[in-house]
Every structure is written in structure tokens, then in C-alpha cells.
Amino acid sequence: MMIYIIITTAIALSMDAFAVAVSCGVSKRANTTYMQLKIGIFFGLFQGIMPIIGWLLASRFAVYIQKYDHWIAFVLLSFIGIKMIKESREKSCDDVGNLTTKHIITLAIATSIDALAAGISFAILHINILITSLIIALITFVVSFLGAKFGQKLGCSFQKGAEVLGGVILIAIGTKILLEHLFIFH
């Protein structure tokens, strides 16, 4: 996978974390640099770990699914994208709650489930998971930190728009993988 696809995927995957970080800023629960860094670190860490877990799970079964791997990648990425778009319409800016470390870890896990599913796609596509996960973690850290930092200024409508954009990007990447496989390899 080319580096621009990895970076684009990382940005798309970080949109859930960004949306939650913006919510933290909008709700004034992340009003210190310390709290904003904490959000960025936890979100980036979990977003980087989850693809590795998904990759490890899928690697054990890659031999059995190679014939259908492009369809699996398409379905998973499209499902994640559609889920992100749907959830952006259901969330309110007040869905954050108190920001204890336990709560931030819970939010980090919840926003990184999509990255677990992407890790399955990465195994199918034979992606270098360590470099990819590092890129995802770093981008998510920066995006989440900035989302929390500027959330008060950006407002709720920007949060929802970012999550919709992330969903559309993931669907587009899944479609690209499918079309490339169907028209190049057959």
C-alpha cells in the first residue's frame, strides 16, 4: 500500500477520535493543555494498537480468505465508513461525560474499534503493520490533540462533519481496493 493511502486511511480512522476530542473541547472538559495531551496520547496509543490486534487475528486466517480478500477489505472499510456517517447523525455534543483517566481510556477504546477492523484489512492486503500502526497512532495523536485544543472554537457542527468526511474516505478507499482488484487482476 502506498504511503499516501496509509496516511489517508490513518486520517480517516482518526476522525472518530477527532470528533470525540472536539466534543471534549466543546463541552469544556478538555480545557487544559495537560488534558488535551492526555486525550491525544490515549487516543493515539489505542488507535495504533488496535490495527496490530486485527492484523494478528487476520494473519492466522489469511490463507483461507485470499481469494476473497478484496471483497472483505471493501465490505469492512465500507461498513466502518457507513457506521461513522450514521453515528455522526446520532451523537450530540454532550455525549462525553466526565474526563477521568478511566473515561478517556473507554473513549479511546470505543473510537479505535474501527482501527481493529482496518487491521484485518491490512493483513489481507499484506501491509507492514508496524509502520502503518505507528503512522495511525501519530496522526491520531495530533488530530485528537488539535481537536481537543480547538473544540471550543469549532463547535458541534464541525465535529459531525469531520466524522462524515472520515466515513466517506473509508468507503472510497474500500471501493478503490475492490475496483483495482477487479479490473487489474481479472
TrEMBL record:
Pfam families hit by this protein: Mntp
Main location: membrane
Alphabetical keyword list: Cell membrane, Ion transport, Manganese, Membrane, Transmembrane, Transmembrane helix, Transport
Transmembrane segments: 37-56, 68-85, 105-127, 134-152, 164-185
NAD found in the keyword field: no
Record's bilayer topology term: Multi-pass membrane protein
Protein's UniProt keywords contain Manganese: yes
Subcellular localization, as worded in the UniProt entry: Cell membrane
Gene Ontology MF annotations: manganese ion transmembrane transporter activity
Role according to the record: Probably functions as a manganese efflux pump.
Protein name according to UniProt: Putative manganese efflux pump MntP
Gene field: mntP
